[in-house]
Design goal:
This protein is of the alpha+beta class. It has ten helices and four strands; from the N terminus they run H-H-H-H-H-H-H-H-E-E-E-H-E-H. The chain folds into two domains: about 140 residues, Up-down Bundle (Four Helix Bundle (Hemerythrin (Met), subunit A)), CATH 1.20.120; about 80 residues, Nonspecific Lipid-transfer Protein, Chain A (2-Layer Sandwich), CATH 3.30.1050. Helix 2 packs across helix 4 and helix 2 runs antiparallel to helix 6. The radius of gyration is 19 Å and the shape is globular.
Length: about 280
Amino acid sequence: MTSSSLLDDLLADLTAEGDALRAVVTGLEPDDWRTSTPAPGWTVAHQVAHLAWTDEQAVLAARTTDAERWPTGKADWDAVVTAALADVDGFVDAGAEELAALPTDELLARWDAGRTALGEALRAVPAGAKMPWFGPPMSPASMATARFMETWAHALDVYDAVANPAAEGGRPLPTDRIRHVAHLGVRTRDFAYSVHQQEPPAEPFRIELTAPSGETWSWGPEDAEQRVSGSAYDFCCLVTQRVHRDDTDLVAVGDDAEHWLTIAQAFAGPAGEGRDKR
């Protein structure tokens, strides 16, 4: 089984981020769940439903890796893939739509159960094994990182839509847990180019970000000509397309670095529409 301090740390941070969102939505009135969020067509219920649905799919994917423990794992995942191929463009949104229509208590129960099951399933993946996904196969650590990124990003949409009494301006203060999002944003540089049918630059970039704690996080060679610097929070908001490039404090040195910041995305799938400039 996969049992590492890295996975344990990732799952602990994922739990903490999910708990923060759970605390906010638990106190919502029924009408609040139908409040529109910055994502076009998505209410608060859709945001939570998407997280719940995706966690459930990740559990099914993880269970393909151990036929003895989960004998129906591969068949369950194959059924998901078959449904996805039948509706490539609308499959994910349809999942969110279905769960969003549930009564609030049922939706929260599904989300809670999925969050718990995901941690158990990822820890049970045999060492060295990778789980299938809608893109390339993923390790348990990579899946936990991706789930953290999505949980954090969709939580921002909820915080922007409803009053959060525990935070100024709606959003809670960022924590150094966002390093997972920043790391994913850096690692997906070339993917962002491929989504736009563009050739990624051959040379690596230097990324230097200031964490919420004041620590400096860096990636890439120190002598790279193409560079990006600024706050880790703004970078994470940008690569999850929760802010317009012009509304960040990010500084790019070099044309390639600047262009990347206009197309960056840490999530799978087609390029999103991004957010309008404030």
